[in-house]
Amino acid sequence: MNADRYEFWVYRQLRRRLHSGAIHLDDSHQHRHLSAKPVPPGRQPGAFEQLDIPWVRRPLDAQLAALSTELHEQWLAFDQELRAGQLTHLDYDATTGTLTCRRPAAAEDDEPDSFYKQLSSCDVADVLRFVNRHCRFLSALTPLHAAPRRSPTRTASWPSSPPRR
Predict the structure, then answer these.
(1) Which residues partner with 37 through β-bridges?
(2) 79, 88 in Cβ contact below 8 A?
(3) Three-class DSSP labels, 75-86
(4) Which H or E element spans position 1?
(5) CA-CA distances (angstroms) from residue 32 to 10, 13, 27, 51, 165?
(6) CA angle at 28 for the pair 22 and 30, rounded to the nearest 5°
(7) 90 near 99, Cβ under 8 Å?
(8) Which DSSP helix (H) or strand (E) runs through 93?
(9) Could you report the per-residue pLDDT of 18-76, keeping only the tens digit for each?
(10) pLDDT of residue 2
(11) What is the DSSP letter of 43?
C-alpha cells in the first residue's frame, strides 16, 4: 500500500464526511451538533411557533397514533397483495416463515439484447472521432487530456489530443 495514496484517501473521506455533516466540529457554523443550542431554552416555544412546522403543532401522542395507523394500513395492504399473488417478485415460505425476493423472469419477446443485436459493432474510438468531426466536442475537453506521450503511433491511437485547426 502506498502511504501517500492512503493518506489522500483518508483526507478525502474526512472532507466528504465533514461536508455531509456526518462528522462535525464543535466550532462549525455549517453543521451543528444536536447538543448545540442556538436558541436559549426560554425562547424555544416562540421559535417553534415562528417555524410553523405541522408536526410540532400536534401533540406527540396524536402524531405517533397517526403514524402507527398509517403503518398498520400499509402492512394490511401489503399482506393482501402478497396473498392475492400480485407481488410476483416475492415468495413466502410458510414452513420457515421467510420472505424472499427474486428477480421476475423476463418475457420471451422482451429480450433486452434485441436492440443491441440490430446495431453493427464498432470501436468506441471510432464513434468518438465521428462525433468530434461533426460537433468538435473534444476541444472542450482539452484540460482533461493527459500530457502528450512521445511514441511513433501517437497520432493514430486513442486517446489523442483534439485535431489541430
Answers:
(1) none
(2) no
(3) HHHHHHHHHHCC
(4) none
(5) 22, 19, 8, 18, 54
(6) 70
(7) yes
(8) strand 90-93
(9) 777 777 666 666 666 666 666 777 777 777 777 777 777 788 899 999 999 999 999 99
(10) 58
(11) G
CA nearest 132: which of 146, 143, 142, 117?
A: 142
Instruction: Identify the residue whose cell numbers are 413466502.
Output: 92
DSSP output for 98-143: EEEE-PPPPPTT--TTHHHHTSPP--HHHHHHHHHHHH-GGGGGGG
Most confident of 38-47, 94-103, 155-164: 94-103
pTM of the model: 0.37
Q: Which helix or strand (DSSP H or E) is residue 26 part of?
A: none
Q: Distance between CA atoms of 57 and 75, rounded to whole angstroms? A: 27
Tell me the C-alpha distance between 4 and 121, whole Å.
42
Say how many residues make up the chain: 165
Q: In this structure, what C-alpha cell is assigned to residue 106?
A: 423476463
Residue recorded with cell 417555524: 51
- Return all residues near 20 (Cβ < 8 A) that are at least 6 apart: none
CB atoms within 10 A of CB 104: 8
Place of cell 462549525: 28
